[in-house]
Design goal:
Layout lengths: L4 E6 L4 H4 L2 H11 L4 E5 L5 H12 L5 E6 L16 E6 L1 H5 L7 H20 L15 E4 L3 H12 L4 E5 L13 E2 L10 E2 L2 H9 L4 E5 L1 E7 L5 E7 L2 E7 L1 E4 L25 H10 L12
Parallel strand pairs: 1-2, 1-3, 3-4, 5-6, 5-13, 6-9
Antiparallel strand pairs: 7-8, 10-11, 11-12
Helix pairs in contact: 2-5, 6-7
Bound molecules: iron/sulfur cluster.
The site of iron/sulfur cluster has 11 residues, from loops.
Length: 294
C-alpha cells in the first residue's frame, strides 16, 4: 500500500489555548514531510470530520493521523473503514488536560506525542485476513487405550476421519490388564465386562480410521486445522495433516515404593490398586503373605 499521509490537528477542548498548534504542524510538515496537514477548531464536528472525509473520498489521503483527544472516544467519528490507516495522538487527556497550559515542557510533550504517532504510522500496515491452506478436519488421537479408542470411535461416528497412534504393538493399553470396568450405564450397580476384541474390531473395521501401532508421534507443528504430524513407525516416518489432536496417552501408576509410610514394601499384604486389579484379572484375590484366598 502506498501511503498518502494526512495529519489533522484539533484546536477544540482547550487544545488551541494550551498548545501551539502551528508548532505541531511544523513537526508534521517540516520534520516528517507530511504532504497534507490541516488544523480545525472542532475536528469531531460536522465540518471538521467532513474535512477529513473529503480528503479520503478524493483519494488525497489513506493514512490519517488525528492529533486530538483520546483514541477511546469519538471512535465512530474517526472511522474510515479497514482500507484507511488511522493513528490517534492523544493531545487532550495526556497533554493539555494534565499539564500546565502554554508551558514549554507541555509543548515539547505534545510535539513528541505527535512524533510518536507519526513513527507508528510509518510502520503501520493494513491488516490482511489470514487465509489457511489445505485445512484439515481430520483428528489425530494419540493413544490406543480405552480413552483413545473411544475418542476415535466417536469421532468416526460423527463423520470425521481419524488417525490413531499407539506406541504398543497392539491396541488396548491398560485395558488389557483390567478385569472389569466401572458401570457406565443405568442403574450403575454392576461392574462391566471388558470386551476388548469387540472394541478393537469396531475401530479397525472403520475405513475412516487409520491406525498406526508400534508407532510414536515424533513432532506436531502448525495450528488448528493445519497441524503437520510426523509419525515414527518401524524406523520409517509418515506425515499426516490433521485439524485437531486428542491426547489420550494414559497414565503411569505411581511408584508405591515412595509410600512406605502406608506400609507398602514393609507389610506384604499392602498392595496397590494395580496389583489388586492384576489379581482379579488372574482369577482371584489372594493374600500375598500366605497365599490364602481373600
Ligand atoms: S472531542 Fe476531540 S476532536 Fe472533538 S473537539 Fe475535542 S479534542 Fe477535538
Amino acid at each position: 500500500m502506498e501511503k498518502k499521509l494526512g495529519v489533522y490537528i484539533c484546536g477544540g477542548c482547550g487544545l488551541g489555548d494550551a498548545l501551539d498548534l502551528d508548532s505541531l504542524a511544523k513537526v508534521a510538515t517540516k520534520e516528517f514531510k507530511v504532504p497534507v496537514c490541516k488544523q480545525h477548531s472542532h475536528l469531531c464536528g460536522a465540518e471538521g470530520a467532513g474535512l477529513i472525509k473529503a480528503d479520503v473520498d478524493q483519494g488525497g489521503v489513506n493514512s490519517i493521523v488525528v492529533a486530538a483527544c483520546s483514541p477511546r472516544v469519538m471512535t465512530d467519528v474517526f472511522d474510515y473503514g479497514p482500507a484507511v490507516l488511522l493513528e490517534r495522538v492523544n493531545l487532550r487527556e495526556q497533554v493539555a488536560w494534565s499539564h500546565p497550559a502554554g508551558d514549554e515542557d507541555t509543548q515539547m510533550l505534545a510535539d513528541d506525542q505527535l512524533r510518536i504517532g507519526l513513527n507508528r504510522m510509518k510502520e503501520m500496515e493494513p491488516p490482511s485476513p489470514f487465509e489457511g491452506e489445505n485445512l484439515s478436519k481430520r483428528i489425530l488421537v494419540v493413544g490406543g487405550g480405552l480413552t483413545g479408542m473411544s475418542a476415535a470411535n466417536e469421532a468416526a461416528k460423527a463423520g470425521c476421519e481419524v488417525v490413531l497412534v499407539e506406541k504398543e504393538a497392539e491396541l488396548g493399553g491398560y485395558l488389557r490388564q483390567v478385569a472389569k470396568l466401572p458401570p457406565s450405564q443405568p442403574p450403575y450397580e454392576d461392574l462391566q465386562d471388558v470386551d476388548l476384541p469387540d472394541l478393537i474390531g469396531e475401530l479397525t473395521g472403520r475405513s475412516s480410521v487409520m491406525i498406526y501401532t508400534g508407532a510414536q508421534v515424533a513432532s506436531i507443528a502448525g495450528a488448528p486445522c493445519m497441524f503437520d504430524v510426523t509419525i515414527q513407525q518401524n524406523g520409517s516416518q509418515a506425515a499426516e495433516r490433521v485439524g485437531a489432536v486428542v491426547l489420550a496417552t494414559g497414565s503411569v501408576p505411581y511408584d508405591a515404593r515412595k509410600l512406605d509410610h502406608l506400609g507398602y514394601g514393609k507389610l506384604s499384604d499392602v498392595i496397590t490398586a494395580a496389583d489388586l486389579e492384576a489379581q482379579f484379572k488372574a482369577g482371584g484375590v489372594t493374600r500375598p503373605s500366605n497365599g490364602q484366598p481373600v
